[in-house]
User: What shape does this take?
Amino acid sequence: MVEFAAGAPCWADVMLPDLEAGKRFYGPLLGWTFGKPDPDRHRYTLTYRDDKAVGALVAKPDGRMPTVWNVYFASPDARATARAIHEAGGQVFAGPEQVGPFGTMVMAADPVGGVFGVWEGARRPGFSLKDSPGSFCWTELTTRDPETADPFYRAVFGYRTEQIGRAGGAFDYEVWTLPDGPDGAYAGGRLRMDPQAPAALPAHFTVLLGVEDCDEAADQVLGLGGKVRTPPRTSPYGRLAEVTDNQGARFTVIDLSRTAEG
Assistant: This one.
């Protein structure tokens, strides 16, 4: 069982118009198997890699809702975190809601419009597997307004932060470190949005999912009806490609074993 410090990403799910189409895409791509849908929770279907929980597919209860990946951050007290979100200028639009015996959930937006979840785990703390092929590896917020977003996440989750690249420059990235963790206990990051990005593109979190081979995964995405938004490239942290699934949800595949240094 994976342990989650306060502020650590602990869960991810994707909201889809068609669950069966989602299974046909993510099963072959990530080696996932699927639990039985929960009819009481909008057909919430757990996903597994090697019999370990790695996330979920969610059938959208309303077609007007976005087709999107969501990330959840751990909290020892979801109600206190909801208050902190309000006090820091964010908005809570769902919860705190107890989800049976599994935990308590909050859905919120930061002051720049980035949507995220908060999870106070009980019977289900979060991922049973992460940082490996077929599982969650990283998340980052992309926004045009880091000057507003950065203080919000420091206030709500107490993150220590490290600037990578030059603030306001072509690559403006801030790494979030867990407040109670050792140096290098990262929670995620924040990227300043490219000025050339479409004006209608809102602030958003990206979920990075591990694969054995990024190039093969990108080809497989195309074969499964998805799209490759940026071709595979090698970074100091892994070889990655930004893709879209067969229903329009954006995410990134990453091979952590292939880095710019090796």
